[in-house]
Specification:
The chain has 556 residues and is α/β, with parallel strands linked by helices. The protein is 47% helix and 9% strand.
Length: 556
């Protein structure tokens, strides 16, 4: 989505409403918290989770107690119905009155919900985020783990909202050692006054449309995390019967058993847009706002089923064991639409889909997937699914072998993932022992301990080889940690003698399983690193292109 900004979703034209001038004010933070409690300020659900973890809660309260600035807030006064929260963790808040203009809190949810929760919590869960006290001796906030009264020098934060209750507890301080009573009382007065008088700037937007509000939010959101395309479309499509994010998450949950639930929600949104008759681009996604709930629900159901079929294909046919190993996440969007339109492909169609996956992975096609390419891909899918084309059209799939020398091995890069998948297809054997590498562990992709350098790092560093060259994909093999420790910093000419002795007549097979040709092996035996990289790059590229029909790719 790097070439498409979420703001492009907001269209303007002759019918667009004219935004009213924003109304700035300076308000006591406690008064704003009361308005949340009473349902005058609502927390719209099109934003991210808004309850912070305990450390951030403490940090915010500490900033208020010290008089540090915590930023402004943005409100949107409107009669439009958006889904909103009626709880802040375990603090229940009031719902608005029917047909009554409310103020949606667009920017500042975490901050104001934290203040509201801390000041007004009256729950019975000792583990609550809001079970907080202020230690008058240490002058710091602490989370409690009991509902019992804390020591006298600690005062619960929820007593700050009621001056009488607060000072009733402070009055018990006289029973402590006389020398520090006055100091503790001074600290208590200071804390109370800081919270009662702490003010922040707030800006209230008039009753304008979502189209007008969204770009304003994106530009001035003080958190540095502007609304995403998913957040915007959640607000635009929400109804009491349909929640976009819940629907997307239901799709992801359906493929969780095969480790594909970490797919970005934006990818599923592209699939939903295509399924409802639109396309993959932001412009087409924006049309979702005009679809009725039955259409959206039907499309989500079809995407859910197509994603199950897609994941079965990726895991069984391609060997992609989780979404983390998928070279490009947007491949999922296209595959999902293919399997939505072609639920049960025939043999020729299946072969074409396989070709498409390997070809787009090798070519780096999705590295620059733009609006024009998205439209072309959707048209190609339509032609393919209706039998008007035998293949799924794509770019000129020509890739030189030096990509394996120019690209470094990093867990988050497409070519690193492609190398791992291709190696897995060849059932790699450990070079020192011949034992089969645990592919499931290697492709779990939460760590890369099974991937090591054929020419050891320390050896190459001693020869002043650059880091980028040392970490080239062509220098990476699957190797057990034990064997890697045995090799240590030995040059290949030394440790490959042990490999040859251990393998015996199986040497060629062990090497081939790691995509190491005889020419690459010969170069390594003479410690010719540059020649090794060239020869192994050829082997890797040949292994990928063998997975693609001959007419689909060529190597230069």
């Amino acid at each position: 989505m790097s070439s498409e900004k979420a703001s492009n979703l907001i269209t303007s034209g002759p019918q667009a409403s004219v935004p009213k001038d924003p109304q700035p004010s300076v308000d006591r933070i406690e008064e704003l918290a009361v308005r949340i409690l009473k349902g005058d300020i609502l927390l719209p659900k099109f934003q991210r989770d808004f309850v912070w973890e305990k450390k951030k809660i403490i940090d915010l309260l500490d900033s208020v107690s010290r008089g540090y600035p915590i930023g402004s807030v943005l409100l949107w006064q409107s009669r439009q119905e958006l889904r909103s929260e009626n709880r802040i963790a375990d603090l229940e808040i009031d719902l608005p009155k029917p047909d009554y203009p409310v103020n949606y809190l667009l920017d500042g949810q975490q901050r104001l919900s934290t203040i509201c929760g801390a000041l007004f919590w009256q729950g019975n869960d000792p583990k609550s985020k809001w079970n907080i006290a202020y230690d008058l001796r240490l002058r710091k906030f602490v989370h409690l783990d009991t509902l019992d009264d804390p020591p006298q020098h600690q005062v619960r934060v929820n007593k700050l909202a009621d001056g009488a209750e607060y000072y009733k507890q402070i009055s018990t301080l006289h029973t402590l050692t006389a020398k520090d009573v006055q100091q503790l009382k001074d600290h208590a007065d200071d804390l109370f006054n800081r919270f009662k008088n702490y003010k922040i700037a707030s800006v209230t937007l008039g009753d304008m449309s979502i189209d007008d509000v969204a770009p304003i939010f994106e530009r001035i959101n003080s958190t540095g995390t502007p609304l995403t395309i998913v957040d915007l479309m959640r607000a635009a499509t929400w109804s009491p019967d349909f929640d976009l994010i819940d629907s997307i998450d239901s799709v992801l949950s359906s493929v969780a058993d095969k480790d594909f639930d970490a797919i970005d929600r934006k990818v599923v949104l592209r699939s939903l847009s295509a399924a409802v008759g639109g396309g993959f681009s932001a412009e087409k996604i924006d049309d979702l706002r005009h679809k009725d709930v039955p259409s959206l629900k039907s499309a989500i159901a079809s995407v859910r089923e197509s994603y199950k079929r897609t994941v079965d294909f990726l895991s069984t046919e391609i060997g992609v064991s989780s979404s983390g190993v998928l070279p490009y996440l947007n491949q999922m969007a296209v595959l999902g639409e293919i399997f939505r339109r072609v639920p049960v492909p025939n043999a020729n169609q299946h072969r074409a889909i396989v070709d498409w996956f390997w070809a787009t992975s090798l070519s780096g096609y999705f590295g620059g997937w733009n609006t024009g390419m998205m439209a072309a891909d959707l048209e190609a899918i339509i032609q393919f699914s209706t039998g008007k084309a035998d293949t799924i059209a794509g770019p000129a799939l020509i890739k030189s072998t030096d990509i394996w020398m120019r690209s470094s091995f990093r867990a988050n890069t497409a070519y690193s993932k492609l190398l791992a998948i291709v190696l897995a297809h060849h059932s790699p054997q450990d070079l020192l022992s011949g034992q089969k590498i645990d592919i499931a562990t290697a492709l779990a992709w939460n760590n890369t301990k099974e991937f090591h350098h054929f020419f050891p790092q320390q050896y190459l560093k001693s020869r002043n080889v650059s880091a980028s060259k040392i970490n080239a994909l062509a220098n990476i093999v699957m190797l057990t940690s034990a064997s890697n420790k045995t090799i240590s910093k030995k040059p290949p000419s030394e440790y490959l003698k042990a490999v040859s002795d251990a393998a015996g007549n199986n040497l060629k097979q062990w090497l081939a399983s790691n995509l190491i040709s005889e020419a690459a092996y010969s170069a390594a035996c003479e410690d010719r690193f540059d020649d090794f990289l060239v020869e192994r790059s050829k082997s890797i590229n040949e292994a990928v292109t063998k997975l693609i029909s001959r007419e689909k790719a060529s190597v230069v």
